[in-house]
Design a protein that fits this description.
Order of helices and strands: HHHHHHHHEHEHHHEHEHEHEEEE
Largest sheet: 9 strands, mixed
Number of helices: 15
CATH superfamily of the largest domain: P-loop containing nucleotide triphosphate hydrolases
CATH topology of the largest domain: Rossmann fold
CATH architecture of the largest domain: 3-Layer(aba) Sandwich
Helix content: 40-55%
Number of domains: 2
Structural class: alpha/beta
Shape: globular
Strand order of the largest sheet: 3-2-4-5-1-6-7-8-9
C-alpha cells in the first residue's frame, strides 16, 4: 500500500506546479519510506535546475522505480493526505512505544511527555490559498458579481456583523479575518462576543464558542437570553439562573432550537486548557463559520512569557482564520491605565501584538453613569475606514438587548 501510494504520487510530478502543489499539501521526504531517494533526487534536481527531470532520467538513475501510467491529476490531494497520515501514524507509534518503557519509572511524567510530543506532531497538511493573480482573474469577476447580487438583496457579502453601521454597507466580516474585542475588566466583552456570534448563528451559520473563563452553563444561559430575544422571547438572564420564568414558554423555545446542531460551546472545566494546536484541531473537526475565543490571555502556549504568549496566540488565531477561511472573534483586556476612558490600542494587556494581528479592532468603554450603555470605536479596519467616533451600544444584557 505505502509503495503504491509513493509510486502514484511521484508519477504525478510532471512540472514545477505539480511539485509545488505536493509540497504545499505537506508532503516532504519523511513521508516516503520505499522511494525516499527518488523523491529527494527530484527535489535536489528541481532546486538546482528549476525544472523536473525527465522520466527517462529518473528511471535511468533508479532502475528499480516504475512510473504508474493510469494515475490521474485529481488524485494528488488524496495521495498527499494518505502519505502525510501514514507519516503521522509512524511518528505517533514511535512516541507511544518509547513511552511504554517510561511508564514504570514515572507513570504521570511519561503520560505528560507523550501528550506533549503527540500534540507537536503535524496532524494535517498545511492549507494555503494558492491563486495566480493573472490566470485566475476571471474568478474575481464571478466573486464580485456574486457580491453585487447579495448586496442588491440586502445581504452581507461576508458574515453578518450585528453592527448596524457595518451591516448597512453589506460588507460583513470577511473570511480569514481575526476580529478583536478589547476593553476593561467587566465592560461586557464576553456578552458582546456572544451577541456577535448569535447574529451569525441566526442566519444559519455554524459557531464554535470557546470559553476559557465562563462555564458552559453560563454561556448557554446567556445564549438563551440573546437568541431568545432575537426570536421574540424574553428570558431575563438573572431569572433564568434561578428558574423564575415561564417554564412552558422556555420549553417551547428549547424544543424549537434543538432541531439544529450548529453551535458548539466548550469550557476548561475538565482541567484541559486550550492551546492553538487544540483549537486548530477543534476547527478541523467541527468546521465552523465563526470561531469565538473569549479570552486570549487564558490560552496556554508552552510556558512563554505573557507578552510572548499573547503574540503567539494572536498570530496563531490569525493563521487559523486564514487557513480555514473562517472568521475568528477573540477578546482581550486592556490595562488599568485606560481607567474609564476609551482605551487606546497601546493599552491592551501584555503589549499591542493583539492589535497588530487583528483585521478589525473593536474597543469598548463603559458609561459610568448609565449601566445599560456602552460605547465602541473601531480604530482599525482592514476593509473600510476606521471608526474613531463613539458608537452607542444599548447594553441591557439581562434582557438580551444589545443594539449596536
Amino acid at each position: 500500500m505505502q509503495q503504491d501510494l509513493e509510486q502514484r504520487l511521484i508519477s504525478l510530478i510532471k512540472d514545477s506546479k505539480s511539485f509545488s502543489d505536493i509540497l504545499v499539501l505537506g508532503v516532504d521526504s519523511e513521508a516516503f519510506i520505499v522511494h525516499t531517494e527518488v523523491f529527494n533526487y527530484i527535489k535536489k534536481y528541481y532546486n538546482k535546475y528549476n525544472y523536473i527531470p525527465a522520466k527517462a532520467i529518473i528511471q535511468s538513475t533508479f532502475p528499480g522505480f516504475s512510473f504508474v501510467d493510469d494515475v490521474q491529476d485529481h488524485e494528488i490531494k488524496y495521495l498527499c493526505d494518505e502519505l502525510v497520515k501514514s507519516k503521522v501514524k509512524r511518528e505517533a507509534i514511535f512516541i507511544i512505544n518509547n513511552t511504554i518503557d517510561l511508564l514504570s519509572i514515572d507513570t504521570y511524567g511519561a503520560i505528560d511527555s507523550a501528550i506533549h510530543k503527540l500534540s507537536n506532531i503535524k496532524k494535517e497538511s498545511p492549507s494555503y490559498l494558492i491563486t495566480f493573480t493573472d490566470a485566475d482573474a476571471l474568478i474575481r469577476y464571478n466573486k464580485v458579481a456574486e457580491n453585487k447580487e447579495k448586496a442588491s438583496k440586502g445581504l452581507s457579502v461576508g458574515l453578518k456583523t450585528g453592527i448596524s453601521f457595518l451591516d448597512e454597507k453589506y460588507l460583513g466580516w470577511q473570511l480569514g479575518n481575526l476580529i478583536g474585542i478589547v476593553g476593561r475588566l467587566g465592560v461586557g466583552k464576553s456578552w458582546i462576543a456572544e451577541y456577535l456570534a448569535c447574529q451569525v448563528y441566526a442566519v444559519g451559520k455554524k459557531v464554535l464558542f470557546l470559553s476559557p473563563e465562563l462555564s458552559v452553563d453560563e454561556v448557554n444561559l446567556r445564549w438563551d437570553t440573546i437568541m431568545g430575544k432575537i426570536n421574540g422571547y424574553t428570558f431575563l438572564n438573572d431569572e433564568l439562573q434561578v428558574g423564575r420564568i415561564n417554564l412552558t414558554e422556555y420549553r417551547e423555545w428549547l424544543e424549537k432550537v434543538s432541531s439544529r446542531k450548529d453551535w458548539l460551546t466548550l469550557d476548561t472545566s475538565s482541567g484541559k486548557s486550550f492551546t492553538i494546536e487544540r483549537i486548530s484541531s477543534l476547527v478541523n473537526e467541527f468546521s465552523p463559520d465563526l470561531l469565538v475565543v473569549d479570552g486570549i490571555a487564558l490560552i496556554e502556549n508552552g510556558g512563554e512569557k505573557s507578552w510572548e504568549k499573547v503574540m503567539s496566540v494572536s498570530y496563531g488565531l490569525k493563521s487559523i482564520a486564514q487557513n480555514n477561511k473562517i472568521v475568528v472573534i477573540a477578546t482581550s483586556q486592556v490595562n488599568r491605565e485606560a481607567k474609564d476612558e476609551m482605551p487606546r490600542p497601546d493599552q491592551i494587556s501584555y503589549g499591542d501584538a493583539f492589535a497588530q494581528a487583528v483585521d478589525d479592532l473593536i474597543v469598548l468603554q463603559q458609561d459610568i453613569n448609565e449601566p445599560n450603555i456602552r460605547y465602541a470605536t473601531i480604530p482599525k479596519r482592514r476593509t473600510g475606514k476606521a471608526i474613531n467616533e463613539r458608537l452607542v451600544i444599548q447594553f441591557d444584557v439581562n434582557r438580551g438587548v444589545l443594539s449596536m
